[in-house]
Amino acid sequence: MKNKNVLIVGTGNMAFEYFKVLKGQGVNCEVIGNSKKTSRRFEELAKFKVIPFKIDEYKDFSHFSHCIITTSSDSLYNVARHSLQYGAREILLEKPGSLFLSQLKKLNLLSKEKKANIHIAYNR
User: Fold this and answer.
1) What 3-state DSSP class applies to 70?
2) Three-class SS of residue 101?
3) Pair 81, 107: CB distance under 8 Å
4) Cβ-contact 92, 17 below 8 angstroms
5) pLDDT (tens digit per residue) in 49-106
6) Considering only CA atoms, which of 38, 45, 32 is closest in space to residue 12?
7) Count of CB atoms within 10 A of residue 31's CB?
8) CA–CA separation, 25 vs 20, rounded Å?
9) DSSP string spanning 7-34?
10) Is the pLDDT at 1 greater than 60, yes or no?
């Protein structure tokens, strides 16, 4: 994945694990988070600056080759939908992807409309 530009959305434990692997491979990463507590912890562990965000204010995902969404289960759908609407084309979405099957179906339709790929991660 060299020469890739990856956006990690979220600053919890899974985000940190993805970050470690990507940095170890020399991948350029940007990390955004809305929780002050987990963002501070992430910065301390990673020695890397987190960009504070409110997802509705983040309007351009198109300059990232990949987007990894590691937010809380109840916000995965909204963040993924927003990311697709604003240019994300390769998305790795943490499980469960959504709490509702109807939302997963909507994401599937939107990803086809936007010619994007969404993969749901299942690491364990």
Assistant:
1) coil
2) helix
3) yes
4) no
5) 999 988 888 888 999 999 999 999 999 999 999 999 999 999 999 999 999 999 999 9
6) 38
7) 25
8) 9
9) EEE--SHHHHHHHHHHHHTT-EEEEEES
10) no
